[in-house]
Amino acid sequence: MTSLVRLDRDLRVDLVRGFALWVIFVNHTPGNWLGFVTPRNYTLSDATEAFVMLAGYAAGIAYGAAMDRQGWFFAATRVMGRVFTLYVAHIFLLVVFTAQVGLSAARLDSAAYLDELHLDPFATDPYRALLEALLLRYQPSFLNILPLYIAILAMFAVAMPLMRYPRLMLALSAGLWAAARVFDITLPSWRGEDWFFNPLAWQLLFFIGCALSYRPPGGAPLSVPWRRWAGVLCGAFLGAGAVLTVMIYFHWDYTAATLPAFAPYLAAIDKASLHPLRLLTMLALTYLIAHLLPRNAAWLRSLPGRVFALMGQQALPVFCAGIALSFLARVGLEAEDTWWMQIVVNLVGAMALVGLAMLTAWYGAEKRGAPRTPRLPSPPQPDRN
Amino acid sequence: MRRILALLIGLGLSLPALAAQGPGCGAPTEWLQSPPLRAVAAGLTAGHLSILAVGTASITGAGASSPAAAWPARLEALLRDRRPDLQLRVEVRGTRGSTATDQWHEIEDALRGSAPPTLVIWQAGTTEALRSLPMEDMATTLGEGLESLHARGIDAVVMGIQFSRFLRANVDVDPYRDALRVVAAANHAGFFSRYDIMRAWAEAGTVDVERASREHRTAEIDKLNDCLARALAAFIRDGVEEARR
Prior knowledge:
The complex is a heterodimer.
Chain A: H1 11-27, H2 47-70, H3 72-107, H4 111-116, H5 121-124, H6 126-134, H7 145-159, H8 166-182, H9 199-213, H10 228-249, H11 252-258, H12 263-267, H13 276-292, H14 303-313, H15 315-335, H16 339-369
Chain B: H1 2-13, H2 38-46, E1 48-55, H3 71-82, E2 87-94, H4 100-111, E3 119-123, H5 126-130, H6 135-151, E4 155-159, H7 165-170, H8 173-186, E5 190-192, H9 194-204, H10 217-244
Helix pairs in contact in B: 3-10, 6-8
């Protein structure tokens, strides 16, 4: 398996990305005990932030190079091709989700929830629901990261040339984020609910990722130099964030009793439009990881490191499979919420994710390694996205 | 012998109840801890209590055998049983699929009446969670409402989302549960975590609507409502004791 991991890239990025994908699977399975140890329990941000930022990082490398070689139009076409793939994957997962909800409802005799509370619009208004799902205006619970990713990648296809002016790009991106937050601008949804993740706010993380990875011809990616005080500040901030998170999740009564003035502020940390504290948490984490974790640390190449890196390198299929597997895991835990089912669900889930990553990595390598027309220059690297 | 007799009498009196399991149908005491409910304590001392229960359809007894089996009605019966001298009024306002905004309008409407309530039990969040409505809107409305109630000297208890394996698997309920808990605590209101309590009952096999067979379903829902009323009574008692401390 280790031969499937591509070592010619920054393994730290792949490893964190792979870890985020696994965490997304765990967090999408409510009732999973591992959900109590994933980073959301001790940082203000969670795997979604890491996923979006590293998607931007990967896009900056892969599509940035394509843009410099073959022009914006070509690169944008490739991004839109990726958008279409994601869109098809999303619609597929939506069908799987709907089938699973129907199955659960029948098994648990919970059909009352379906019609009384419009949980399943496919039952009450199927044609409309289908149309709204295709328009991404209907997003059931747990199926909201892919629409976010789709919307952000579509923005990226248009804004791609701005990567050559990273400061301008970041200023525009931050401006859009701030405007989305201040003026409450978001994409509309079918029944009045907003998008769970507001793409107009979340794009900022993606474009930060782009700016950190894109290497303009003859230049270098945007870099933030190491400063001891900045590192200390980041560390202190993350520590404070951990305390806040623990307060929110575990000791709320105590917090409310001792810090009543502070409490309403804590209550206002939202995920939908990427609250500044969540953004700062992600940036601080990135800063510390990028500077404190040596690029060539031996443990990155250890077996667990390679497993996560492999998953991170095959992000798209692993992500989609993670969401699909979380449906199965939910059915499992719903039927039998016992310790052995917890083990089965997590073991099978993790093994399936790793197995899929191995399969796609092997397939990709075979495709690259056995060109039928050796006279032509080797084809461009497949998307790292 | 006398104890057995007392127990038998007690069991007979508390039909259709489960008195043997201790207060609140054996709900873990950690979920029955309330902040001080000063208005309720004062009302109990003075001999009158007026409760307003607001929420979705379930509080009017949807799925139960009759409206009298719904938890607000059961709570009223329990309180009358324990304090026959009390001047008690329980008003229930539940609408199918109501959001926090709708519910706040109901509360405002009730506040315009002649006798303002002593305690508002606000069963919030279910519709928002099931329809994935924006959490911020819910938190803002709920927070402002609770603050307004507190300013008027009315006690409030927020009742959270119910536990269901089906909901847990298919609806992202946890963020909504956290939001309700945080908003309640930030605004001096009690938070009655129906989710945790019902999960404890389901795990202990006390009440489990989802595992009940179809023909026992209504009876199980009645039992659930009765147990919720008992747990809520224990919760309120804790709040009153806190206030008197």
